[in-house]
Amino acid sequence: MSQPSSPRARTTNTHHDLLRKRLIVCVGTGGVGKTTVAAALGVAAAIHQRRAAVITFDPARRLKDALGLTRLTTDPHPVPLGPDGDGLETLDAMALDTKHVFDAVVRRFAPTPEVAERILGNRLYQQLSSELGGSAEYMAMEKLHELLHHTHYRLVVVDTPPSSHARDLLAAPTRLGELLASRAVAFLKSPAALLAGSGGFARFTLGTLLKALERWSGLSLLQDLAGFVEGFESMITGFQSRAEEVGKLLRASSTAFVLVTTPEPDAVATAIAFHRELRVAGFHVAGVVANRVLAFPRRADLATDAATWPPALQRKLLANYADLQTLSRRDRHTLTHLHETTGMPLLAAVPMLSAPPQSLTALRRFATYLE
């Protein structure tokens, strides 16, 4: 039986321009191969002589396995492109470590080393830097700002978390700006106002509660809060300006969002909904990478070829091929529906593989579908 034909002929030429972007953000629901596509785009960039970095903000850290690395941290790790990698540009990979990036930001932007050490030693900071809701998204924006402004990479590829969490990531610059401009930050500069501004009974109740919390947690809440905010006050303007810059970069013409999906109807429905959100938010979606696409064409000579097979095997294999043709028609239908609904071009259709790429050699073969 012949191999299924590749669906690449149905793709557009748009993907030839994709690797010339400054920033590619891979988005999509979980389980569609988003990490593999991000890694393969980085490899394709290296093949096309573009110095690139791939960073994952997905805590699952599957990027490490896809690139054949034993470890992955927030520092750049060179990807060993192999003995046939001569002539290829460098590819680095990294993963977000919220606490590490937060500490680095404090050291870089604190007005003096003494202020930096005071912030890093603050017990409240030590809790907030790793456990504060949204801190991972804020630090992802800081890391992205660093990669785009202070490194020599010509292309940065971002592997985002699944779409539900990617929404929080993409909203982080706006949310951080709103937070830093809010009255809450000004109020926290003088935490004693929590008590001074209350009535007698309320002040007594709140004071009792704070003392109980201090005994239970071992923290001097008001003192630690005052020290935390005092140390960060000089850095707030920097946080806000960098958040605004990243927000603009994400919407710049040099940035391309790539929606990764499979032809499964549920995945396509999620991709359509997410595309609508991205467009409303002002992000430029370059197109779709469809993964695990079946393309088994109708063969007029199949029955003739099968005539030489044993009858039982003939019936089984012909039935299997008929099922694969049915699934192939479904894949074509769902991808056509995706295009007609969103207008997004199909950048690449990657055929169903026997196994996901688990080595750099396999990843380079995968990357050929994205070139």
Explain what you see:
The protein has 17 helices and eight strands. The protein is α/β, with parallel strands linked by helices. An eight-stranded mixed β-sheet has the order 3-4-2-5-1-6-7-8, with helices on both faces. α4 crosses α7 (135-149) and α5 (113-121) runs antiparallel to α12 (221-233). Mean pLDDT is 77; it is low at 1-14 and 190-195.
Keywords:
single chain, 371 residues, 8-stranded mixed beta sheet, 8 strands, 12% strand, elongated
SSE blueprint:
Layout: H1 15-18, E1 23-27, H2 34-47, E2 52-56, H3 62-66, E3 77-78, E4 91-95, H4 98-109, H5 113-121, H6 123-131, H7 135-149, E5 155-159, H8 163-180, H9 183-188, H10 193-196, H11 200-217, H12 221-233, H13 236-250, E6 255-261, H14 265-280, E7 285-293, H15 302-306, H16 311-342, E8 346-351, H17 360-367
Parallel strand pairs: 1-5, 1-6, 2-4, 2-5, 6-7, 7-8
Antiparallel strand pairs: 3-4
Query: What kind of oligomer do you see?
Result: single chain
Q: What is the rounded Rg?
A: 26 Å
Q: From the helix content, strand content and strand pairing, which structural class follows?
A: alpha/beta
Q: Roughly how much helix do the residues carry, as a percent range? A: 40-55%
**Low confidence ranges:** 1-14, 190-195
Short summary:
The protein has 371 residues and is an alpha/beta fold. The protein is built from 17 helices and 8 strands.
